[in-house]
Amino acid sequence: MHPVAKLDRAFVWHPFTQMRDWAKSEPIVIADAQGAVLRDVFGREYLDANSSIWTNIHGHNHPRLNEAISRQLRRISHSSALGLANVPASQLAAALVKTADPARWRRSGPTFSPWPELPLKNPRLTKVFFSDNGSTATEVALKLAYEVSRRARPKTKPRFLSLSGAYHGDTIGAVSLGHIDLFHKAYRGLLFHTDQVTTPYCYRCPFNRARPERADARTYRKCQGECLGDLEQKLARQTRRGTPYSAFMFEPLMQGAAGMIAQPEGYLRQAAALARNHGALLIADEVMTGFGRMGFRAGSPPSLFASHLEGVQPDFLCLAKALSGGYLPMAATLTTPTVFNAFLGEYEEFKTFFHGHSFTGNQLGSAAAIASLDLVQKPATSRKRMHLQSLMQQELAGLWALPNVGDIRQIGLVAGIELVKDWRSRQPFDLRERAGIRVCDAMAKQGVLTRSIGSVLVLMPPYCTTPMQLRRMVSSMAEAIRETFAPGPR
After folding, report:
1. Burial class of residue 121 in the structure, from the number of CB atoms within 10 Å of its CB (0-12 exposed, 13-18 middle, 19+ buried)
2. Which helix (H) or strand (E) holds 414?
3. Can you point out the beta strands (E) in 133-212?
4. Mean predicted confidence (pLDDT) in 25-50
5. pLDDT tens digits for range 47-77
6. Tell me: the pLDDT tens digits for 101-154?
């Protein structure tokens, strides 16, 4: 065993990992990387098929990002944001506000049949609160929404609504808005209550009367939009009680940790309009979906944020992961003048937002984020993403031939491939069967790294991925699925 692997086994506790299983084999120890390729301490190469857990959009060791950080490092790496401003954080905040301006992307979007088009008013996002990861970005939004609601309705306890299967991070507030028992049940005694509403999971929706086909379930669903009906009923019930929801939190277009659940076109716009019409603030968790991950839609102007692809501007836009190109811990929560103004007052009124982080708006993270934002908006990067999105769709189509592939859900450069015992019955694997883990282990032996979410395989390549590398990622997945579920003894 490599000496570093011995150190890891002796001292490191890994996240979301059963450490007894971890200790059974020698881990892959990453030593360096270039572009979409990772190398371990033995010099073996692996394709990074999930962008190092959804963060590294431009690839590793990118010269523009390296130079931006090095240039900033020669000046100053960090100074406190408590009572001080700094150059790159101020510049980054201005750039993010500009990127989120509705004038750059405004559109009406499709309706979610059979629901009629509902009016939707969109605010401007003008203020940025920096933190350091996705959990803290959503925690900031939650605290702000809580306080705004409490001040507006002092006699009413703020209530929050999120989608079933929601995952918004691991801090206590973020966990309270999550609804995945595997992750959240153990902490229930620490949490405050939040309500959940039916998520538009077309493949396993009890209201979808369509028989399984060899296509994305969103394209052949047969339903009456019952998921929106559930949302409307919950919103209306709380309004009648005189305790309307303070905020509705959602991942736009695709729920990541829920199993890459892709929403049908039009759903988000209708859901946002319903929530806003009942007085709820909108919190968009774009930690996974932001910075171009959701790609392009025909007839839609390009946008870096998933919410905007449906013409939705939230009251809180939560960003992290790819914000710094996957280089440094960095997060941001964008919000409106209305929210900001609710915290203005004389010192002795103590209306201040009493929340902060030691590395808020740090210079190194801000410099990396500015360089990443510049890169992702370049026309050449947009053309590359558009081509990769199309190629990925073409390559994934070949997986429909495999009987253990039940659904393939792709939006932009994110795909979830749901494994089942047989596609005709949609019969799921029990979590204890470790179906997704086994396929990922087989892929790793072929030099392709990704992680599964239960029985859902994730494909989320960096934007620098070449066509040849993308084809290899998908072909490796196909071979691993065939090998894992081949008949006979394992």
Report:
1. exposed
2. strand 414-422
3. 160-163, 195-197
4. 97
5. 999 999 999 999 999 999 999 999 999 999 9
6. 987 766 656 778 777 777 888 999 999 999 999 999 999 999 999 999 999 888
DSSP state of 488: S
What is the CB neighbour count within 10 angstroms for residue 356?
A: 14
C-alpha–C-alpha distance, residues 343 and 349, integer Å: 10
Domains and CATH numbers, the chain: 3-61+379-484 (3.90.1150.10), 87-376 (3.40.640.10)
Q: Which residue type, as a one-letter code, is found at position 138?
A: T
CB 267 within 8 A of CB 232: no
Q: Nearest 5°: phi and psi at 150?
A: -65, -40
Q: Which residues does 303 contact at the CB level (< 8 Å), separation at least 6?
A: 104, 105, 309
Question: Which runs of E-coded beta strand occur in 198-315?
Answer: 247-250, 254-255, 261-262, 281-285
Q: Has this prediction a pTM greater than 0.90?
A: yes
φ, ψ at 312 (rounded to 5°)? -110, 125
Tell me the Cα Rg of the chain: 22
